[in-house]
Amino acid sequence: MPKLLLSKGYEVHGLVRRSSTFNTSRIDSIYVDPHDPDARLFLHYGDLSDSEQIANVMYNIRPDEVYHLGAQSHVRVSFDTPEYTGNVTALGTTRLLEAIRRSNNPVKFYQASSSEMFGAAVPPQSETTVFHPRSPYACAKVYSYWMTRNYREGYNLFASNGILFNNESPRRGETFVTRKITRAIAHILAGKEKFLYLGNLDAKRDWGFAPEYVECMWRILQQEKADDFVIGTGETHSVREFLHESFDYVGLDVEEHVRIDPKYFRPTEVEVLVADAEKSGKVLGWKPTIKFADLVKIMVDADMKTAGLEPIGKGDGIIRTKFPHRWWKCD
Ligand code: GDD
Known about the structure:
Layout: H1 2-7, E1 12-16, E2 41-45, H2 51-61, E3 65-68, H3 75-80, H4 82-103, E4 108-114, H5 136-155, E5 158-164, E6 167-168, H6 177-189, E7 196-198, E8 204-205, E9 208-209, H7 210-221, E10 228-231, E11 237-238, H8 239-250, H9 254-257, E12 258-260, H10 278-284, H11 292-306
Parallel strand pairs: 1-2, 3-4, 4-5, 5-10, 6-9, 7-12
Antiparallel strand pairs: 8-11
Bound molecules: guanosine-5'-diphosphate-alpha-D-mannose (GDD).
C-alpha cells in the first residue's frame, strides 16, 4: 500500500510497533531517511492497543485517508491468542474510528475486511452474503466490519469496507500457506531443507495477486460515497492444487518432500471461498489480471531468486500486470 500511495504522489505516514529487533524489512525498498528533503514516507511508533497514541498521531498528522490494514492476521494463531486477537483486530478498529470521529476532520477510512468473515457461508460470496465466521480472527473482523458501518451510519463518516479474498505476493508472510510452500521449494532446491510440513490440503481459496488488490483499496476511497466491496478473482483452488502447481513448476515431487502435521489443522476450518466481485467490476472498474498459475510462478521465481537460485521463469514474459509495481520481476 505505501508503495502505491507514494507512486500516486501521497505523503505517507505509517504506524510501527516497537520491537527490539527490526520489523520493517518489507518496506526497506521504499524507505528514505526522513532527513532527506525528498522523503515522503514517515513512520511513527504506535500500537493498535494504545488509543492515546492513535489519537495523538491522528491529531498531529491530520490525514486525508486512513488505510486500516493492521491486525493479528494469522487465522491459526488466533485460536491460540483469541483475547489478544480481539483486542488488536477488533478493538483496534474502534480506537481508530473513535480517533477520527473526535478529530472532526473529514478523514476517509478504509477497513481491511476479510473473506474469512464468510467462513461457512455457501460460495460464491458477495456483499449480501450472511457472515458465518469460523475463527477468533474472523469474529474480530466481523466486529470491525460492523463498527465501520456503524460509524458511517451514525456519524456520517466516510468509512468503507473492502472485503478482500486471499491476496498473495512474494512479500507474503512466511507462515501463510502460499509463501510457506514457495519458500520451502526454494529451500529444498538449495539443499537447505528436505521436508515441508502442512495441515489441511483440501481447503479452497480464491487467491489473487496483492499489488492489484492494493489499487482496488485506493479506488474504494476515491468513490463519491462510502460503501462496501468484495474483491477477489472468482476462481477457487485447493491448497493441494497450489502445492502441485508449484512443485510441478520446478520439477519437484510432492510425495517425496511433503508431510502432514496435524498441528497445522484448525479447530474449525473455512472450506471454500470464492468471490462474487461483480459489484467491484461495475462500480470500481476493477478486474484482476494475474490468475492462479501466474501467481504461483511469480512467487516460486521470487523465492528462488532470494535463495540465490536461477528463477525458472526468467524472461518468459509472465509479468503482465499494468500496475506500476515491478519489484517481483525476475530480471
Ligand atoms: N498457514 C497455513 N500453514 N495454512 C495451511 C497450512 C499450513 O501449514 N496447511 C494447510 N493450510 C490451509 C489452512 O488450513 C487454510 O485453509 C489455507 O491453507 C489458507 O491458510 P492461510 O494461508 O493461513 O490463509 P487464510 O485463508 O487462513 O487467511 C488469510 O487470508 C484471509 C483472507 O481470506 C490471511 O491473510 C487472513 O489475514 C486474511 O484475512
